[in-house]
Amino acid sequence: MSLLVVGSLALDTIETPFGKAERTLGGSATFISVAASYFTQPVRLVGVVGGDFPKKELEYFEEREIDLEGLQIKEDGKTFHWHGKYDYDLNTRESLVTELNVFADFDPIVPESFQKSQYLCLGNIHPALQKKVYEQMQSPKLVVADTMNFWIDGAYDELLEVLKHINVFIINDSEAREISKEANLFKAAKKIQELGPKIVIIKKGEHGALLFYENELFSAPAYPLESIYDPTGAGDSFAGGFIGYLAKTDDISFENMKRAVIFGSTIASFCVEKFSLEGTRELSHLKIKDRFNEFTRFSTFEPAEL
Amino acid sequence: MSLLVVGSLALDTIETPFGKAERTLGGSATFISVAASYFTQPVRLVGVVGGDFPKKELEYFEEREIDLEGLQIKEDGKTFHWHGKYDYDLNTRESLVTELNVFADFDPIVPESFQKSQYLCLGNIHPALQKKVYEQMQSPKLVVADTMNFWIDGAYDELLEVLKHINVFIINDSEAREISKEANLFKAAKKIQELGPKIVIIKKGEHGALLFYENELFSAPAYPLESIYDPTGAGDSFAGGFIGYLAKTDDISFENMKRAVIFGSTIASFCVEKFSLEGTRELSHLKIKDRFNEFTRFSTFEPAEL
Predict the structure, then answer these.
(1) Domain spanning B29-44+106-297: which superfamily?
(2) Which of residues 12-51 of A touch B (CB under 8 A)?
(3) pTM score
(4) What are the distances in angstroms from CA B191 to CA A115, B187, B200, B214, B257?
């Protein structure tokens, strides 16, 4: 089924205690669409870059069957640039530089040929832009959105407006607590469901993820990673694997969404094993299937009698 | 199969933001043996109390088929008393009063009829006492031990000595990090395995538990509790449910130990729903089975194709 992804495209400089990558391909739409492309092709992309955006990265997108008809290339402008530095625990990061550049007045336009896409993933951008994209669509079957604390703090009302229109909201644990003002994640999810999305996914990093599907719950384990090199893009890779698998199977039942959460976790686990996009840039179906099966192995137990 | 439990018996005063219980039945051996008694009977107990220990609580133990032959009753002494107060997050607690009383010079003696017990649970007491109990046993099939940060700080060498002799070590995440000096729990577990126990269980509270069984891993979800009233005894209830199920089935394979972890999590989830022992005092097999099945429901997913 057709999938449309909107979000940021960036050239990131990333420092972690284990290394540094300069002006490397990043942004929420990049991580999401690359992750999704392992499940469904083409992936339709809406975003904006400047004239400095490397041609070879455009070619890479095309190799992965990412449809760039909705990509605005502002030849006179510069691509969004973020420079972040992570602490030793990789949980706290500092934004050293944030140059919005062409992203500052991004006006997302959904090409006519994209407007009937059945699956829509609103990556992490200003909620007002997410809404603008949604409004150009012709009744998509499933709308998934991501956000970040920056918008919860700075654009709360616009975020509430977006929440009314989406089906699946993907956030991390601290964002869930911040939006709901509830410390307990099970209560937090219920409160968020009341704001609109009947399906809420709370990512808990090394502790896995919780899928709240109407009144049902699924608790997904985390992949047992001994070393994390760079958490950048993990959340977006999760979202991309998740919606990519749903678009591929065109089945939004609870049972299938559980599998989508495991595929999302699978792609996210590959993402953090290397720097930036390196972890997901060149995956294979075999690698993805093997890791999915590993998740099965360490979360399955047999019935018992008493 | 025969099960022996050693640990503390206490009269606790507990304050949480939601209420207070005064001089109520507590202690590691209490929570463990009560939890285990839902799976296997009799449970053999080694411990010490004073003359003030309520007769009705001794009768309660007997009703639950907890064999008190190894319980020393010091008529002239007073039972171990702990008075703790929990903060609003229920994660941090303050010990307001700790009166060791008869526990101060507890000399655990395993009655001859208990020495051939096949399953041994060394509850949270001084590691030197755990070792003393172990040394009185005649080649038990499985030795499980618990500990706490207090002993990691204050009796590290004795704890290392105990670790050499046990098969299963149950600790929480912060204790695992403290013992191993490793932030990553997967690395921490490997380091602890090198200290002796080939099986390590790391409890993560609201995030479930990890079972490391030689080179295998099982990730157990947490029960989705919206309200926790009192965390006292949760870890001991986990240990009791875990070893009780193993003693009942007499099967220490990885597959069966996964189920034992789920039964441990089940009993711990009942424990924290009420004050002190109230959550596990009067359980039924039906309630336990129903909750075990709920765990299955929210952690199972079906295979997928790519």
Answers:
(1) Ribokinase (3.40.1190.20)
(2) 38-39
(3) 0.94
(4) 54, 6, 10, 12, 21
